[in-house]
Specification:
By secondary structure, the protein is α/β, with parallel strands linked by helices. The protein is built from 9 helices and 11 strands. The mean pLDDT is 93.
Length: 225
Protein backbone atom coordinates (compact mmCIF):
# COMPACT_ATOMS: atom_id res chain seq x y z
CA UNK A 1 0.00 0.00 0.00
CA UNK A 2 1.62 3.25 -1.11
CA UNK A 3 -0.06 5.79 1.14
CA UNK A 4 -3.19 7.11 2.82
CA UNK A 5 -5.60 9.26 0.81
CA UNK A 6 -8.09 11.78 2.22
CA UNK A 7 -11.03 12.97 0.09
CA UNK A 8 -13.06 15.27 2.37
CA UNK A 9 -13.89 18.85 1.28
CA UNK A 10 -11.83 21.87 2.27
CA UNK A 11 -11.00 23.21 4.77
CA UNK A 12 -11.30 19.84 6.54
CA UNK A 13 -9.02 18.18 3.99
CA UNK A 14 -6.08 20.46 4.79
CA UNK A 15 -6.66 19.92 8.52
CA UNK A 16 -6.62 16.13 8.10
CA UNK A 17 -3.44 16.28 6.02
CA UNK A 18 -1.71 18.47 8.59
CA UNK A 19 -2.63 16.24 11.52
CA UNK A 20 -1.73 13.08 9.62
CA UNK A 21 1.66 14.36 8.50
CA UNK A 22 2.44 15.66 11.98
CA UNK A 23 1.83 12.10 13.20
CA UNK A 24 4.31 10.76 10.65
CA UNK A 25 1.79 9.32 8.19
CA UNK A 26 2.38 9.32 4.43
CA UNK A 27 -0.88 10.96 3.40
CA UNK A 28 -2.15 12.71 0.28
CA UNK A 29 -5.44 14.44 -0.41
CA UNK A 30 -7.83 15.34 -3.20
CA UNK A 31 -11.21 16.92 -2.33
CA UNK A 32 -14.00 14.91 -3.95
CA UNK A 33 -16.54 17.42 -2.61
CA UNK A 34 -16.98 21.13 -2.11
CA UNK A 35 -19.31 22.85 0.34
CA UNK A 36 -21.96 25.15 -1.12
CA UNK A 37 -24.31 27.37 0.84
CA UNK A 38 -28.08 26.82 0.58
CA UNK A 39 -30.77 29.41 1.15
CA UNK A 40 -32.84 28.68 4.25
CA UNK A 41 -35.72 30.32 6.07
CA UNK A 42 -34.89 30.91 9.75
CA UNK A 43 -37.55 30.27 12.40
CA UNK A 44 -38.43 33.04 14.82
CA UNK A 45 -35.38 33.39 17.13
CA UNK A 46 -37.78 33.99 20.02
CA UNK A 47 -38.90 30.34 19.90
CA UNK A 48 -35.36 28.91 19.79
CA UNK A 49 -33.27 28.33 22.94
CA UNK A 50 -30.04 27.14 21.33
CA UNK A 51 -28.39 25.88 18.13
CA UNK A 52 -27.46 22.26 17.43
CA UNK A 53 -24.53 22.16 15.00
CA UNK A 54 -23.12 18.99 13.44
CA UNK A 55 -20.48 20.54 11.19
CA UNK A 56 -18.30 23.62 11.06
CA UNK A 57 -19.66 24.09 7.52
CA UNK A 58 -23.01 25.10 9.02
CA UNK A 59 -21.29 27.98 10.81
CA UNK A 60 -19.20 29.05 7.82
CA UNK A 61 -22.09 28.86 5.32
CA UNK A 62 -25.05 29.75 7.55
CA UNK A 63 -25.23 33.19 5.95
CA UNK A 64 -27.47 36.04 6.98
CA UNK A 65 -29.99 33.73 8.63
CA UNK A 66 -27.43 32.61 11.18
CA UNK A 67 -26.77 36.19 12.31
CA UNK A 68 -30.25 36.37 13.86
CA UNK A 69 -29.20 33.71 16.39
CA UNK A 70 -25.96 35.35 17.50
CA UNK A 71 -27.08 35.48 21.12
CA UNK A 72 -28.02 31.80 21.29
CA UNK A 73 -25.69 29.17 22.78
CA UNK A 74 -24.35 26.40 20.54
CA UNK A 75 -24.31 22.66 21.22
CA UNK A 76 -21.58 21.33 18.89
CA UNK A 77 -20.93 17.78 17.70
CA UNK A 78 -17.17 18.00 18.34
CA UNK A 79 -14.31 20.33 19.15
CA UNK A 80 -13.57 21.46 15.54
CA UNK A 81 -17.21 22.49 15.16
CA UNK A 82 -17.16 24.18 18.56
CA UNK A 83 -14.04 26.13 17.60
CA UNK A 84 -15.71 27.34 14.38
CA UNK A 85 -18.69 28.53 16.46
CA UNK A 86 -16.45 30.37 18.92
CA UNK A 87 -14.56 32.02 16.07
CA UNK A 88 -17.90 33.26 14.71
CA UNK A 89 -18.74 34.84 18.07
CA UNK A 90 -21.05 32.17 19.52
CA UNK A 91 -20.99 30.89 23.07
CA UNK A 92 -20.50 27.10 23.11
CA UNK A 93 -22.63 25.50 25.80
CA UNK A 94 -21.59 21.87 25.23
CA UNK A 95 -19.38 19.75 22.99
CA UNK A 96 -20.25 16.17 22.08
CA UNK A 97 -17.93 13.22 21.53
CA UNK A 98 -20.06 10.44 20.03
CA UNK A 99 -22.33 12.10 17.49
CA UNK A 100 -25.36 14.37 17.60
CA UNK A 101 -27.82 11.73 18.82
CA UNK A 102 -25.65 11.03 21.84
CA UNK A 103 -25.29 14.76 22.48
CA UNK A 104 -29.08 15.20 22.31
CA UNK A 105 -29.51 12.53 24.95
CA UNK A 106 -27.23 14.42 27.31
CA UNK A 107 -29.23 17.63 26.77
CA UNK A 108 -32.52 16.01 27.72
CA UNK A 109 -32.44 17.25 31.31
CA UNK A 110 -34.79 20.17 30.74
CA UNK A 111 -37.15 21.38 28.00
CA UNK A 112 -35.20 22.85 25.08
CA UNK A 113 -36.15 24.24 21.66
CA UNK A 114 -33.21 23.64 19.33
CA UNK A 115 -32.47 24.82 15.81
CA UNK A 116 -30.42 22.24 13.94
CA UNK A 117 -28.44 23.61 10.99
CA UNK A 118 -27.57 20.66 8.79
CA UNK A 119 -26.27 19.68 5.38
CA UNK A 120 -28.45 18.33 2.59
CA UNK A 121 -27.13 14.85 3.50
CA UNK A 122 -27.54 14.44 7.24
CA UNK A 123 -28.19 11.77 9.84
CA UNK A 124 -31.82 11.70 11.07
CA UNK A 125 -32.19 12.43 14.77
CA UNK A 126 -34.80 11.36 17.29
CA UNK A 127 -35.57 14.18 19.71
CA UNK A 128 -35.78 12.95 23.33
CA UNK A 129 -38.80 13.86 25.42
CA UNK A 130 -38.75 17.53 26.30
CA UNK A 131 -36.67 18.59 23.29
CA UNK A 132 -38.19 20.26 20.25
CA UNK A 133 -36.01 20.12 17.15
CA UNK A 134 -36.31 22.46 14.17
CA UNK A 135 -34.08 21.47 11.23
CA UNK A 136 -32.91 23.75 8.42
CA UNK A 137 -30.62 22.86 5.51
CA UNK A 138 -27.85 25.46 5.39
CA UNK A 139 -25.38 23.84 2.98
CA UNK A 140 -24.69 20.92 0.68
CA UNK A 141 -21.59 18.88 -0.01
CA UNK A 142 -21.45 18.79 -3.81
CA UNK A 143 -19.55 15.86 -5.40
CA UNK A 144 -16.58 16.49 -7.70
CA UNK A 145 -15.04 14.14 -10.28
CA UNK A 146 -12.01 12.14 -9.23
CA UNK A 147 -8.81 13.71 -10.65
CA UNK A 148 -6.65 11.53 -12.91
CA UNK A 149 -3.76 11.87 -10.43
CA UNK A 150 -5.87 10.40 -7.65
CA UNK A 151 -7.12 7.56 -9.86
CA UNK A 152 -3.50 6.69 -10.68
CA UNK A 153 -2.66 6.69 -6.96
CA UNK A 154 -5.53 4.34 -6.16
CA UNK A 155 -4.58 1.94 -8.95
CA UNK A 156 -1.17 1.52 -7.28
CA UNK A 157 -2.90 0.56 -4.01
CA UNK A 158 -3.95 2.95 -1.25
CA UNK A 159 -6.01 3.38 1.90
CA UNK A 160 -8.82 5.94 1.66
CA UNK A 161 -10.21 7.79 4.69
CA UNK A 162 -14.00 8.10 4.72
CA UNK A 163 -15.58 10.83 6.84
CA UNK A 164 -19.19 10.49 5.62
CA UNK A 165 -21.60 8.08 3.99
CA UNK A 166 -22.01 10.35 0.97
CA UNK A 167 -18.22 10.26 0.50
CA UNK A 168 -18.27 6.47 0.65
CA UNK A 169 -20.94 6.22 -2.04
CA UNK A 170 -19.29 8.82 -4.26
CA UNK A 171 -15.91 7.11 -4.04
CA UNK A 172 -17.51 3.81 -5.05
CA UNK A 173 -19.29 5.47 -7.99
CA UNK A 174 -16.13 7.22 -9.21
CA UNK A 175 -14.10 4.01 -9.01
CA UNK A 176 -16.74 2.28 -11.15
CA UNK A 177 -16.88 5.16 -13.64
CA UNK A 178 -13.11 5.27 -14.11
CA UNK A 179 -12.49 1.54 -13.97
CA UNK A 180 -10.44 1.69 -10.76
CA UNK A 181 -10.54 -1.77 -9.20
CA UNK A 182 -11.74 -1.80 -5.60
CA UNK A 183 -9.55 -4.82 -4.82
CA UNK A 184 -6.52 -2.50 -4.67
CA UNK A 185 -8.12 -0.08 -2.19
CA UNK A 186 -8.64 -0.34 1.57
CA UNK A 187 -11.05 1.90 3.48
CA UNK A 188 -10.88 3.38 6.98
CA UNK A 189 -14.28 4.79 7.95
CA UNK A 190 -15.21 7.18 10.73
CA UNK A 191 -18.23 5.03 11.69
CA UNK A 192 -19.79 1.65 10.78
CA UNK A 193 -22.69 3.22 8.84
CA UNK A 194 -20.10 5.00 6.65
CA UNK A 195 -18.30 1.73 5.95
CA UNK A 196 -21.60 0.08 5.01
CA UNK A 197 -22.38 2.85 2.52
CA UNK A 198 -19.23 2.02 0.53
CA UNK A 199 -20.56 -1.39 -0.49
CA UNK A 200 -18.36 -4.44 -1.06
CA UNK A 201 -15.39 -5.55 -3.09
CA UNK A 202 -12.67 -3.53 -1.31
CA UNK A 203 -9.35 -4.96 -0.16
CA UNK A 204 -10.17 -4.19 3.47
CA UNK A 205 -12.80 -2.09 5.27
CA UNK A 206 -12.65 -1.13 8.94
CA UNK A 207 -14.41 1.41 11.15
CA UNK A 208 -12.93 3.65 13.85
CA UNK A 209 -13.78 2.70 17.42
CA UNK A 210 -14.96 6.28 18.02
CA UNK A 211 -16.04 8.98 15.57
CA UNK A 212 -12.99 11.19 16.08
CA UNK A 213 -10.28 12.23 13.65
CA UNK A 214 -7.43 11.05 15.87
CA UNK A 215 -9.01 7.60 16.22
CA UNK A 216 -9.56 7.35 12.45
CA UNK A 217 -5.93 8.23 11.72
CA UNK A 218 -4.72 5.72 14.32
CA UNK A 219 -6.84 3.08 12.59
CA UNK A 220 -5.31 4.02 9.24
CA UNK A 221 -1.81 3.67 10.73
CA UNK A 222 -2.65 0.20 12.05
CA UNK A 223 -4.11 -0.89 8.72
CA UNK A 224 -1.01 0.28 6.87
CA UNK A 225 1.17 -1.87 9.09
Amino acid sequence: MSRIVAIRPEPGLSATLAVGRAAGLEIAGWPLFEYRAQEWLPPDPAVIDALLIGSAAAIRLGGAGLAAFGGKPVHAVGEPTAEAARSAGFEVASVGEEGLQNLLGKLATRPLRLLRLAGAEHVPLVAPEGITLETRIAYESAPLPMPDEMAHELVQGALVLLHSAVAARHLADECSRLGVFRERISLAALAPRIAEAAGGGWADVRSAAAAREAVLLALARDMCH
